Amino acid sequence: MRIVLAAALALAAAACVPQPVPPPAPAPSPVAALPAPPVSAPPPRGNDWRDWPLTPGDWTWARDARGSIARFGVPGGAIRLALRCDAAQRRILLSVEGATATTLTVRTTSVTRAVPVQPAGGNPPALQAALAADDGLLDAMGFSRGRFVIEHRGGATLVVPAWAEIERVTEDCRG
Predict the structure, then answer these.
(1) Is residue 76 part of a domain?
(2) Residue at 3 is within a domain
(3) Mean pLDDT of 49-60
(4) 161 located within any domain
(5) Which among 2, 44, 67, 112 has most CB atoms closer than 10 A?
(6) Is 80 within the bounds of a domain?
(7) Model pTM greater than 0.85?
(8) Residue 170: pLDDT above 90?
């Protein structure tokens, strides 16, 4: 019993001894801002346009007094490409951003063709091509495997998804 009593007294005495307090941690040193990573150029495009990334955007379709129109662009942003049915003339007006080119090159899985364009004005400026409603290029665009490309000198290359809006305008114009 004496041993237990002695151990209890030793523990009680140890509990009364103040424990050492560790010194306060040093204030963190200011961290220098890291330089921004360099802006890298987009990866180079491969040789096959069918593997190029799509241009950001979506197709929309609408009808108005002149016919129907399909527009491609980022919602709330500029229209990058438009196909309008001019029902009175039975033609499709294809419009893209740009001001200086004289031709557009349209690439689909079945057809590659240069199409003459005229300045169409507007803000931003646009180029416009007139295609007969029965022009096979319109079907080639609408049925191209997943995408088609529109290129012109001095403008951005558009890699556009081949959605139903293209054929809807084409069929509206064909009557």
Answers:
(1) yes
(2) no
(3) 95
(4) yes
(5) 67
(6) yes
(7) no
(8) yes
